[in-house]
Amino acid sequence: MDYNEPMLLALLSDTHDNAATTKAALKLLAPFKPAAYLHAGDLVDAGMLFHFAGIGEFHFVFGNNEFDHAGIRSQALALDLHCHGEMADLTFAGKRIALLHGHDGGLMQKALSGAYDYVIHGHTHVRKDVRIGRTRVINPGALQRARVKSVALLDVAKDELKFIEVPG
Q: Is the dihedral of CA 7, 160, 82, 12 positive or negative?
């Protein structure tokens, strides 16, 4: 792969069963044709996974509001979606990415150890883009219980981030 080519990742978190806002976010993201969608937890219910079926490569982790892990894993498998449990260790365009919800302090410390180029998390419902050492830490915001609902697009090949506000 030519690393000068865009490698767009769609970043979402904290959808909390809000189907209408999730659909609106996916509609806003679709024209960018992301290489993959990364969800940083708190989908909440297995039924939310149907919104992500067929959109392309989809990776997600559990947050602190998913209680039926077995049911969610089973539904993800049936829909060919990638459930990573509490934390995912992913690589896109040669960049190492930790995907986690952010409610577990120990996992967050592990992610912030300097081993990752990017740490993508949710939990706070507040969008964020900061650097800690060599690691860029991003929270795309939330699609539920947030004053301003948002998602983000990350071009890992160019290290460019764009937040997208979602009506609703």
A: negative
